[in-house]
Each structure stands twice: as C-alpha cells, then as structure tokens.
Design a protein that fits this description.
Layout: H1 2-31, H2 40-46, H3 64-70, H4 75-84, E1 91-92, E2 96-97, E3 104-115, H5 118-131, H6 143-146, E4 152-157, H7 170-180, E5 184-187, E6 189-190, H8 193-196, E7 204-206, E8 208-209, E9 217-222, E10 226-228, E11 231-233, E12 238-242, E13 245-249, H9 251-277, H10 282-286, H11 291-302, H12 312-320
Parallel strand pairs: 3-4, 4-5, 5-7, 6-8
Antiparallel strand pairs: 1-13, 2-7, 3-9, 3-12, 10-11, 12-13
Helix pairs in contact: 4-9
Binding site for Mg(2+): 192
GO molecular function: metal ion binding
Protein name: Regulator of RNase E activity RraA
Length: 324
C-alpha cells in the first residue's frame, strides 16, 4: 500500500512539473511573438558597424548634409566604391521613373509583401492592431507610411507584381510626401500615376503602373531585410536613386563613399582638362600618376575655379592616406 501511495504522489509531482514547464514555454512563446515591425534592438544588430546617431526605431541617422552631397555622386562611382568594399549586390536597374532627371537620396524604411495567405494575414493584422497599436482601418499597405519621417525613403518588395499589385495611389502618395519629403522605390507597381505626378517633389522608381487596386497581397514585415531585384536592402541603408539605376549603401560606408567619389570626380575633371590641353598623354593619366602629375593636381586643387564639394580639411586628410 505504501508503494502505491508513493507512486501516486510521484505522478502528481511529475504532472505539476510538466504543467509548470508548459506554462513557461507558453509564456516564452507569447513574449517572443514575431512583430510586424522589427525591434530597435534587431535593427541595431543588423547595422552594428554604424557609429553615430540613430532614429527611435534603431535605424542609423545619416546626416542631411551627406544625403545632399550624395545626390551629386554618379551611380558608377558609388557602385565602384561598394564593389571595392566587397558589396557586389547593391544595385538594381530597369525602372520606370516618374521624374527621371531628379536624383533622390534618403534613409531606407523597408517593407515586404507576399501573395495573400489568409491564416498568416490574420495573424499579422492581429499582431499589428492589437499588440503594436497600428491602424485597424484601411489596408496594411498604409502601415509603413505611418512610421515615415523627414528624409526617409519607403522601399518595398512586392515581388514585381503589376496588375492588382499597386501599393499606393495618389492619396497614399500625398501622405508619403507629407511625412518624408521624398518618394518611393517599389519592386512592384503603383496606381493613379497621373495623380501621383501632380504631387510636387514626389518621385517614384517602380516596375510598372496599373489602374487596378491592390488584391491578393499581404504585408509581412516592416524594417526587416528585403530583396529588391539584384540588391539586398537593410533598414537604415542609404539609397541613391537616379535615372541610371538605384544603389543601396550601408549607412556606415556612405560618408566614405561620398568623399571617395567626390575626389574621384575631381581627379577625372583634372585629367580630362589636362588631356584636352595636351599636357599629358592618355596613358599617363590612366596609370599611376608620377610625382609631377600629383604636384600638378594639388596645385590645380588649390586654385579650383569653383566650390569644392568637401571641406579643405576633409580633402587634405583623404589625400594623406591614399596613393592617387
């Protein structure tokens, strides 16, 4: 009898251990439920090489002055700097551009869209509305717009869908520009392009446009890594968008990229001028420069006929460390 009682007590103890373990597992699962928007901690981990100011959501906050200087950098120059740093998958081309002669730069906010799956869409809406406080009205395609701030560029991967894949029309376009003073880059489409074109200052790089409404699509994440054609894009990247294509630049490299490209531009300007003057042969300019050419270049810089794109201190520090 004593043995039976001990066995029953053991079963009870085992049951409570299992029950308690189950509650811990459930609590852990609840605590680590996947958010629609990435947490600041996750974004900081993705962009850990950035040293400097960050937005409240964790994204690097590259200065407005660097964003403005970046507009003058060519796609080829930016691509070359990134390739030399080992970043070979940051460019995407073949865009339809609303204002092709105007460059756009800014801090990337990412969004990922996928074909609709009802059970997953329900979970995303429940998570976004009930636990993250996102708007229950309208479609989830407005959620990335709600978090934009001045200087942000809304970048979305909607898997190239054109018909029934239009992420915004002119109403959402107005909301985007009001918040960011920028435009959009979509691996997908927009609707009401005529209305969008009337928003002064708004620009868009898309894969197409269509009069249809968005259907059979769902938002799956905000500020997570996405793919845009050939490029891998992280939240907080800095985008350089021109009529020749789009480059996504890791935030920690953008200042160096701008300065390197600016010096390359000055070097090319000097070389072209000297070739027109017949002072040097093409082979002399295209190869490593002699001390004579270097001295000539420094003298040319000191008498530059316009305003240098960088400060004199930035230029001097750059030239000290490089064999140009």
């Amino acid at each position: 009898m004593n043995a039976i009682i001990s066995f029953i007590k053991g079963l009870k103890a085992h049951f409570w251990v299992l029950a308690f373990s189950g509650l811990l597992l459930f609590a852990k699962t609840e605590a680590t439920a996947q958010n629609v928007a990435a947490s600041p901690e996750y974004i900081k981990a993705l962009t850990s090489e950035w040293v400097g100011e960050r937005s409240a959501d964790g994204r690097p906050k590259v200065s407005d002055s660097i964003l403005e200087r970046l507009k003058n950098i060519s796609i080829e120059e930016a691509w070359g700097v990134l390739r030399n740093k080992g970043y070979q998958n940051q460019y995407e081309g073949e865009w339809q551009i609303m204002l092709p002669d105007e460059a756009m730069t800014g801090r990337v906010v990412t969004a990922q869209y996928m074909p609709l799956r009802p059970d997953m869409e329900k979970q995303i809406k429940d998570q976004g509305v009930e636990k993250e406080g996102r708007s229950p009205k309208g479609g989830t395609n407005s959620w990335p717009i709600d978090i934009l701030s001045n200087g942000d560029v809304y970048v979305a991967d909607s898997y190239g869908k054109i018909v029934d894949g239009t992420l915004i029309g002119d109403n959402l376009g107005n909301a985007i520009y009001a918040k960011s003073q920028r435009g959009v880059i979509f691996n997908g489409s927009v609707r009401d392009q005529e209305g969008l074109s009337e928003i002064e200052g708004f620009n868009a790089w898309t894969k197409g446009q269509d009069p249809s409404y968005i259907q059979q699509m769902m938002l799956t994440s905000i500020n997570a890594p996405i793919r845009v054609g050939r490029a891998t894009v992280l939240p907080g990247d800095i985008v350089l968008a021109k009529k020749y294509g789009v480059i996504f630049i890791p935030a920690y490299l953008v200042e160096e990229l701008v300065l390197t490209s600016e010096v390359t531009g000055l070097r090319d300007e000097f070389g072209h001028q000297r070739l027109r003057e017949g002072k040097y042969l093409a082979g002399q300019i295209d190869s490593e420069w002699t001390d004579e050419i270097k001295k000539d270049f420094l003298a040319w810089l000191n008498n530059y006929p316009g305003k240098l794109p960088m400060t004199k201190q930035e230029l001097d520090d750059y030239l000290k460390e490089r064999n140009y």
